[in-house]
């Protein structure tokens, strides 16, 4: 069953095509083809080398563009005023920000400092506001302290213990518990919207 191959073995490695009309080639073409040292493998190697040269030249071009762009960005960064010293030490000024070197640089730096201070202040206000909301939540403590939810939970547990063979008889207690939890959720959502 598995001993025979599914394809018949090839009878020869050459394929011969016969045409209905006679095909004739000039003797010059036949001599040129026979005298040519080029084979299929040499043509494929030449093609592969040509493709590799094209890829290499494209990679070199892209590398040169990236290097040029990097140099431009480094130049822009080096000519820009140093913002790290002003944000860490607002009173410390670099020589190009002093009033004797030029008022324009000083004004630009002070405007940048003001913007940084405003953004810092707005972020601090937002953090304080979020802390205040978190203090107001205290969800777990309120759930534990809510006497109505605890009472409804206790009634469900007691009913299930009494009716351990018939838990569907506790539907009234379960509905009361659901109502209390719904009330607690509404209170929570109302506080979140405040």
Assembly annotation: single chain
Q: What structural class is derived from the secondary structure elements? A: mainly alpha
Separation, N- and C-terminal Cα atoms: 80 Å
Mean pLDDT, nearest integer? 77
* Order of helix and strand elements from N to C terminus: HHHHHHH
Based on CA inertia axes, which overall geometry fits? flat
Number of strands: 0
The count of helical stretches stands at 7
- If you compute it from the alpha carbons, what radius of gyration comes out, rounded to the nearest whole angstrom? 43 Å
Given as residue ranges, the uncertain stretches (5+ residues, pLDDT < 50) are 84-103
Largest sheet: none
- How large a portion of the residues is in β-strands, by DSSP E? under 5%
The helix fraction, in percent, is over 70%
Overview of the molecule:
- It is a single chain.
- The protein has 194 residues and is mostly helical.
- The protein contains seven helices and no strands.
- It has helices at 27-35, 40-79, 83-88, 103-137, 139-145, 147-162, 171-193.
Task: Summarize it.
With 194 residues, the chain is mainly α. The chain has helices at residues 27-35, 40-79, 83-88, 103-137, 139-145, 147-162, 171-193.
